[in-house]
Amino acid sequence: MASKIDVSIGGAAEKSAAPAIFTGIALGEPIVMGILNVTPDSFSDGGDLPDPAAAIAVGLAMREAGAAILDVGGESTRPGSDPVPIGEEQRRIVPVVRGLAQAGAIVSIDTRHASVMRAAIDAGARIVNDVTALTGDPDSMRVVADSGVSVVLMHMQGEPKTMQQDPHYDDVVREVRDYLAARVDACVAAGIARSRIAIDPGIGFGKTLDHNLRLLNELGAFRELGCAILIGVSRKSFIGRAAGNAAPKARLGGSLAAALAAVDRGARIVRAHDVPETVQALKIQAAIGRAGD
Predict the structure, then answer these.
(1) Cα 62 versus chain centre, distance
(2) What is the reported pTM?
(3) Which of 9, 87, 175, 188 is most buried, by the most CB atoms less than 10 A from its CB?
(4) How far apart are CA 165 and CA 186, in angstroms?
(5) Are 77 and 114 in contact (CB under 8 A)?
(6) What is the pLDDT of residues 203-259, one digit of tens each?
(7) In a 3-state reduction of DSSP, which class is residue 31?
């Protein structure tokens, strides 16, 4: 078994300094990024938002419930998924991004394609959330650097179609951390300020149950990169495997438990389907933490 990286983690451990702000949002306490998939085939909510008007209404309700960021995605990257034509991805996301941005929401675009990033930014998106950490399209880095938007760099082993067939690491925490460190360095070299970068270890993207659990347990290892840490655990299959094979929409309890554990270890942005419940859980966790001050 690979040895653990020597870092302090957990609620009683001293936290290293997190970035004070990301995309104009203070990170003194963790924030919620609401998931808004305008896809027919996402793993837990595909087809739930049949048209732009429905998506915009749900997004604004998430914002009212406390989501600081709304993450719009037009291509499912669930395990086994096939790529979506770029024109179709743009058709799905542009009116939703535009409507939310015009209403004053901070919008993130969940895409791995530079032309979709550009179209979403033109429509008002302020964050690019890329599962390939700006490696999936040769123009992605330039789009983000030139536009001045913020970026979420995620780790994924392999491609969505095949990533869960046989993921392997010698030391998952060290390898994911080193990959993200290299991607942060590449972004900084390209002119993207570290303060505009968040990192995501990619729970469920080319990882086994044990890999996911170890990454969550040792999330403190990522604080040294000096970027906001985003965690995406909402409704993911590792929760079903760890807790009795619950269906995706029956994984709220496990999603909240994993999110709170991640925040306790340094995550500042929680990406979630169930926004009101996640906001409430984080408020109570913070209130308990302040009680001893």
Answers:
(1) 16
(2) 0.90
(3) 9
(4) 29
(5) no
(6) 999 999 999 999 999 999 999 999 999 999 999 999 999 998 778 888 999 999 999
(7) strand
Name residue, tokens 């709220």.
Answer: 252
Domains and their CATH numbers in the chain: 30-290 (3.20.20.20)
- Enzyme catalytic residues: 236, 271
Contact criterion met (CB below 8 Å) for 130 and 151? yes
Structure confidence by residue, pLDDT tens digits, 43-98: 445 556 668 998 999 999 999 999 999 999 998 776 666 778 999 999 999 999 99
In total, the chain counts a number of residues equal to 293
3-state helix, strand, coil in the chain (%, to 5): 40, 15, 45
| CA pair distance 51, 38, nearest whole angstrom | 8
- What is the b/e burial string over 199-231, where b = at least 16 CB atoms within 10 angstroms of the residue's CB? bbbbbbbbbbeebbbbbbbbbbbbbebbbbbbb
120 Cβ neighbours under 8 A, 6+ residues apart: 72, 93, 94, 97, 107, 109, 111, 128
Q: Give the span between the Cα atoms of 57 and 96, in whole angstroms.
A: 10
